[in-house]
Amino acid sequence: MTNTRVAVDVGGTFTDICIMEEETGHIRIEKTASTPDDPMRAIMSGIEQGRIDLSDVSMFSHGTTVATNALITRNLPRAAMVCTDGFRDVVEIRRANKEDLWDTYKDVAKPYIPRRDRLTVRERVNAEGEVLIDLNEDDAYRVAEVLKKRGVAAVAVCFMNSYVNGTNEQRMRDILKAVMPDVPVSISSQIMPEIFEHERFSTTMANAVVSPVVVDYVSRLADKLADGGYERELLLLHTGGGVMTTRAVRDFAARLAGSGIAAGAIASRFIGNLCGYPNTIGFDMGGTSTDVSVSYRGEPRITKDWYIEYGFPIRFPSIEVLTIGAGGGSLAWKDEGGSLRNGPQSAGADPGPACYRNGNEVATNTDANMVLGRLGTSLAGGKITLDPALAEDAVRTTVAEPFNMELHEAAEAIVRVANANMANAVRLLSISRGYDPRDFALCAFGGAGALHGAAVARELSIPTVIVPANPGVTSALGCLLVDIQHDFSDSFMRAAKGTHPAELEAAFQRIEDEARAQLTREGVEEKDMMLQRTVEMMYQGQWRSLEVSAPSSITDMDDLIEAFHEEHAREYSYSRRDAPVSLFRAAVKAIGIVPKAEPAKSKVHSYTPDPDRRRRVWFDGEVHDASIYDREKLTAGATFIGPAIVEQFDSTTVVPPAMKAEVDAYMNILIHTKA
């Protein structure tokens, strides 16, 4: 039996398992019901159902929602924060802003660590990194003893100006570890050595509170896999688009917050490159939400402005993903102004859409698609049976009768509103960022992405839609396509023109030494290390910076300044070449290359397949006799013209009238939206 690679993506409804044979690139999939109380049970159940011999697995990669769910539900162990005297309320004051500026009565959530567990010590470092007051060790030991008595499970240490000199923080950590050796301690000078106290404190706080939860889960899973015969490192997908080993998770647990949604963005970028489209828009539509991501010139957009709860940023670099409440279970409803709306309310997995026969009577996108004939009477290989009569009743009572519409007109209205919502989300990540959607391909996946992908692409004039071979488990596939990755940075605040290239080069050398040491600790050989440099820059007087790629050797500051002007012009449609430019931060992405198996490639033989059956399907107010294909019967080179429906175990693909679809060598379906 050949070596296999296994990737697991845990969702709210299903746990998806992607199994790839290294020698052939053949992929098979397994889906099992998720177990929210302990995700590990669903993983082990899926391994058993998939008949996976763990002793034969060469790589096990996992996208987990454990950290995300812990922060959302606030099901967190008791944690504490140690701050500079006078600064315990930085995370409470925040930026004094609100998510909804005009809602007087809506308060921002409380910090993850309450005020009674935010204690202070006397110490002080100035903005230049000079220690004005050494850590008062009497205070430090007193605080440590208090926290020990309180039984805290984790501690965050956040001192003023520690981003330029973390000496006092490091000493505080040593004292805490001496008093409480088994309690994890996160220090802000290690977690995020950047200016802006709230963002640094908030990120360190989030890292501390999820650390016990994540480390416990990861350790138990690693032990369980080892008991089953797995001998390699368990790899955990993080939001930056790479994976971490279990050792790295102990220091940077909060990097796993948002782990699941990053996998889909990674997979869409990979599939787009495979198909010859370096510019791709990831369109991951599931049962409750849709995740949109952008990859430009083969690289995903990275952001540091993200959070699980508004007001408490997590500033680790993350793939930028926009999530909206639009999915197969999104509910149709009438607002106070008499307009038809769609989502963000959702029927979820239970009771689910009306056609699931679990008691819901409100129309969803799934019900509308069923009324239009775009869905058959079963999903997931027959595991879920759909009732067309219940779907019709829901659409009739929810939309057709209140809006005085004919049944199929109402169903199309539901789908159009959903498509408009999703198209707007794509615009937010493309047009508003300076990208033209017409220069991209839309990679549609998730359980419902292929149902709506072609219509959304047509709305945005996107010329090509890519439907992966297994759309429902594409996010799991993304976990197989990543390398070990860490992000290191250091503040470097000075005028660009007045900086000698050797000064910036020396800063990069220090960061790269730290990066190599981290990869070495994780068992990465020198030949498999890759270091990518970036510099954050801004016009003098600004406080928001832009990231610019930096060469492997800094010899000329003028080239960096010119690159910043060009990036500013692309991002904001203007640049100020006569304005002075400031440097803000030097950063290094440290990558440990993980060998990747290539997906199986088939020989292409062009032909027009005969439909397996035909069905009445509605498009734009007209009924069509559409061709229905079983996807597993289609081979590379198959070409057909819509209207057509392609059905498979984990998804359904809709090809509207006059659009051309073709199956490529990697078994992706390419839908060309223009005839």
UniProtKB/TrEMBL annotation:
It comes from the Bacteria. GO terms for biological process: glutathione metabolic process. GO terms for molecular function: 5-oxoprolinase (ATP-hydrolyzing) activity. Transmembrane segments: none annotated. InterPro entries: ACX-like_C (IPR049517), Hydant_A_N (IPR008040), Hydantoinase_A (IPR002821), Oxoprolinase-like (IPR045079). One of its GO terms (cellular component) is cytosol. It comes from Sediminimonas qiaohouensis. The lineage of its organism: Bacteria, Pseudomonadati, Pseudomonadota, Alphaproteobacteria, Rhodobacterales. This is Hydantoinase/oxoprolinase family protein. Residues 5-179 form the Hydantoinase/oxoprolinase N-terminal domain. It holds the Pfam family Hydant_A_C. Residues 200-487 form the Hydantoinase A/oxoprolinase domain. Residues 496-667 form the Acetophenone carboxylase-like C-terminal domain.
